[in-house]
Each structure stands twice: as C-alpha cells, then as structure tokens.
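Quick one: structure for this chain?
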Amino acid sequence: MRVGFTGAGLDRADHLRLDEAALAELAAREGALLLRLEGHDPLVGEAGALLWDLLDAAGEAERIFLGLAAETPLFAPVPRVEIGRPAWNVFPVLSLMRAEEAAIWGAARSLIEWHNRHLFCGRCGAGTRLFRAGWGRRCTGCGLDHFPRVDPVVIMLAEHEGRVLVGRQHRYPPRRYSALAGFVEPGESIEEAVAREIKEEAGLDVTDVRYVASQPWPFPGQLMIACIATAAFPDIVLDSNELEDAIWVDRAGVAAALAGEPGAPFAAPPSFAIANTLLKAWVDSLAPPRGAA
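Got it. Here's what it folds into:
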C-alpha cells in the first residue's frame, strides 16, 4: 500500500549527526546538494522532481542534513518563515510530485517549521542554536536540548452495514469530504482516541477499531494513524463546531469519488493524503476476490 509522504529511500545516517568532522566532509563533498525552496514550499521541475542546487559548504546559514541518496549528501536550508500557514496553497504542486520526492520535501518542511517554532528555549527563554545536523536545537542559556516532535493524530472511517461515514469541515474546498480526524490526547490509546473522536464529532458509538496504515503529515508535523471502526447505529449527531456536514456513502459512491466521476456523491481528498488511501483500503476490503463469480 503506497502512502503519501513515504518512501523517500534516503539513508538518514543518524550516526553522523553529532560528528562535526564527518558532516563537514559531507558538505564539502563534490555533488553535495541543497534543496531549493520558496520559503518552505517545494519548487519542482519536470515530472514533479524537486529542484536542487550545489551546496556552498562555506555558507554560514543554518542547514539540515537530510541524509544520503546513494553517495550524494542532501541538505535543506532553514529559512525564517511564517509559521502556521495554511497548507492548501501547496496542494496543487504536491499533486504533481512523485511520492518519494514529496517524502523528502515533507521531512524538510516539518523540520523547518519546527526550527522556526523553537528559536527560544521553553524553559529559560534564551535563544537556541541548531545542532545535531539540524535534528535538534540547544539552548544557549541553560543548555537544554530540544528535539523535533511528532504529534499523533487518528484519522478514521466509521462503517455501518456496507456504508462508510465521511465528513466535511468548513474550510474544505467545494464538495470535499474526508475521513474524520483528531489528535490523540494524553493518557489515551489509539483505539480510545478513534472512539472518542467519532463520538464527539458525529455522535456515533464504535467498536472493533482496526489499524490500516500511517503517514507523516508535514503541516506542520503529525503522524496520521489511519483506522476503520464499526458503528453500532447510523444516526448522526453532528458537532457543528467541528464539521459542516457528515454523510454515509456506499462502496459504489466512494469508488466513484476516488475515480473523480462527475456524478460522485462527494469529491475525494487528494491522492497524497492518507484519507484517500484509507478510502481505497475500505473499498478494496469489500471487493470480491479475483475469480469469484
């Protein structure tokens, strides 16, 4: 199962991140590359490929060591950017990118935003500096080390008698519906978070929570945990603060939405989003085996 923002295929070479001499050698290596960005958005060329520049090893700007592509060291800059910007504007570009290219950029984007959120120490308020090849920041005052965080988010479908629940947020593009989602709270399992979020947003009691797949989501740094659960009854009680609408859709309707058919009951989420993968997995799970009558 291919999931968006995965499959970069890089050797992240964690063992080199504290080796300043080795990092300097990598930066000075002939052919070392620096990711070309506009802010922290991707710039792409033909066939959805990322654009790279030769790295100036003498440059003083902060940079992240992304890893090795075969023997080629890959780095990304750490520009000062506006944090918390909506993701929608970059979606058309992502639709053009190969999955492995999006995965490389996604890691860089998450780290860039994290760096911009942690310029000052949360314990003493002093400034921080990049260390560990861009995979950490160290306080210049109290010495506390800060590391990139990933926030777990459950994203799920409730199913009931051959239909699946999809919801629409107020900010979605016209006709877009997707899986429900929400952050995992402290002291909560994935299964408990799935049940709580569906109950809160749609008023449904669910059981039999099944894990499907996961995805790094770089807006700004979540781990999306995709699940399917079984609803005890179909009556929706909508939380209008969270959702604009929620509907039950059968397999034919979901398949039509994924295919982009004009008569589909809703517009599916983009192909690089795990909600799209989750809907495909649900449709495929209901398909008859090959050779069946």
